[in-house]
Amino acid sequence: MKINWKKAIGLTAAAAMLLPLAACGSDTASNGGSSSTTTGTTEVTLSVWSPQEDQAKGKDGSDSWLAQVEKKFEEAHPDYKITWKNDVVSEADASKTVIADPAAAADVYMFANDQLGALVKAGAIGELGENEAKQVKDQNSQVLVDSVTGTDGKLYGVPYTANTWFMYYDSSVFSADDVKSWDTMLSKAAVSFPMTNGWNMASWFTKSADLTFFGDNSNPTDASKGISVDVDKLTATTKYLVKMANNPNFINDDDTSGMDNLKAGKVHAYFSGTWNASAVKDILAPDKDEDGKADFDHYAAAQLPKFTVDGQEYQMYSFAGSKAAAYNPNAKNSKVAAQFAAFLGSSDAQKLHWDLRGVVPSDNSLADYEGNGSDFGSIAKDPAAQAQIATIANTSILQPSIAAMGEWWDPAKAYGASIVNKETTEDNAAQKAADFAKLLAAMTKTE
C-alpha cells in the first residue's frame, strides 16, 4: 500500500477520548518488579515490536503512528513515566521471533492471528483481562473476536484491522447489481480469479459443497475432526467450475497476472485485499487533471458475489482473520503492557492508523469515519475499506489458525490447477471430487 503522511489527530483531544479505556487496565495481569515508584509516579520500561511502516516518520517530519500512540498513552497515564524501546518486527514474523525466546521478546507486539495457536502453545501471549476482552467484543464482528480466541476459549489479542480479500471492479463495465452475481459478470465481460491459490479456492465450496473445517466454520479448533465435504455437491460445483474455466470471459490469476491484466484492460474485475487498494485505484482512477477530477474514475469494490449451481444460488465466502496487538505474559510490567496492547487497538489509535497509513479499522463504529484531512480521506467513501468491512460482516468465515490447517493449502491449490489446466473435466469430475474428499477426510490430527 502506498504510504502518504499528513498531520494526525490532535493529541490533547485524542488523549481525552482514550482515557476511559486506558484507565481500565488489566484485571488478570500482574505488575512486575522492574518499575519503581517516586512521588506517585511509576517508572516503567516497555519494549514494543511493530512493523517498519508504523515507525516511519511522515514526509513532513511528523512523528510515526507508533510514536504518536505512545505519546497519547503517556498523556492518558500521567502516573506512568515510561521509557520506550521500539524495534521493527512485522506482524508476519511475530510468532517465530517471539517464540524463539519468549522471556526476551518484546512486552508488546503486533501479530497476524494465524500465529495464535503457536504463540499460546509457547506461553508467549497473554490472556486478555475482563476490560480488554470487553473492548474486543464491543468493537469487532464475531469473526474477528473468534480470530483472537484460543482453543481454550480465552481471548489473547486486540484486533486493529481485518485480513481478508474481496472484489475490485471497473464500474464503467459492471454495475453495483451486476457484481452481486458471478454468472452475470461472466456474461458481460472478462473477470480474473486466483483459482490456483488455496486461500481463494475454499470460497467456492464453503456453501455449495458443505465444506467444513475442523468441526465448525464459526470456530474451527478441533483438529481431530479434519476437513469434511459433501462429495455429490462437490462434484456438482466442480462441474460448474470446469464450465467456468472454459468460458472465454474467465482468466485465471496466477497471483501475478491479475493486476497486470486489469491494468491492460484485459479483465474488469480482480480479487484481492486492501494491500493492493492503492495500485488498483491508480489503474481504475488515473491521475487527476488540473480541475482535480479523475478522467476515468471507475474504481469500485464489493463483497464477494453469488453463483448458481444446478439452479441453486450460493454465496462465496472468503477466509478472514485479523492483525492484532498482544502483550507478553513474561513482561516485567505485564499490567502496563496489557493496557498498552489494548490502547494500540483502541478506536482512536485505529483512526490514526487510517489517517496516517490507510489501515482499515476493525472497529465497527468507524465504518462511517470521515477521516482527519489526510490523503486517505473518508472510510465511509473509500470503496476498498467499505468492501472489506462488508466482506467481514457478510461473506467471510474464520480462517483456522490451528497447525492442521497447513495441510489444506497445497491440495486446494492442486485441485484448482487441475480445473484450470483442463485435467479435470465434466466427465471425470465425480472421480476427482471423490479423490479430493478422501484426501480432505484424512486431514485429522491431535493437537
- N- to C-terminal distance: 36 Å
Name of the CATH superfamily of the largest domain: Periplasmic binding protein-like II
Query: Which residues form runs of ≥5 with pLDDT under 50?
Result: 1-38
Main pleated-sheet profile: 7 strands, mixed
DSSP summary: helix tally: 16
| Helix percentage | 25-40%
Number of DSSP-assigned strands: 16
- CATH topology-level fold name of the largest domain: D-Maltodextrin-Binding Protein, domain 2
Q: Which CATH architecture of the largest domain? A: 3-Layer(aba) Sandwich
Shape from CA axes? globular
User: What is the alpha-carbon Rg in Å?
Assistant: 23 Å
Return the structural class.
Answer: alpha/beta
| Count of domain modules | 2
Keywords: Signal, Transport
Biased composition (Low complexity): 29-47
Family: Belongs to the bacterial solute-binding protein 1 family.
Signal peptide: 1-22
Report on this structure.
With 447 residues, the chain is α/β, with parallel strands linked by helices. It folds into two domains: 230 residues, D-Maltodextrin-Binding Protein, domain 2; 197 residues, D-Maltodextrin-Binding Protein, domain 2. The protein is 35% helix and 17% strand. It has 16 helices and 16 strands. The strands form five sheets. Strands 1, 2, 3, 4, 5, 15 and 16 form a seven-stranded mixed sheet that branches. Strands 11-6-12 form a three-stranded antiparallel sheet. Helix 1 packs across helix 2, helix 8 crosses helix 15 and helix 9 packs across helix 16. The chain is globular and about 75 Å long. The N terminus is likely disordered.
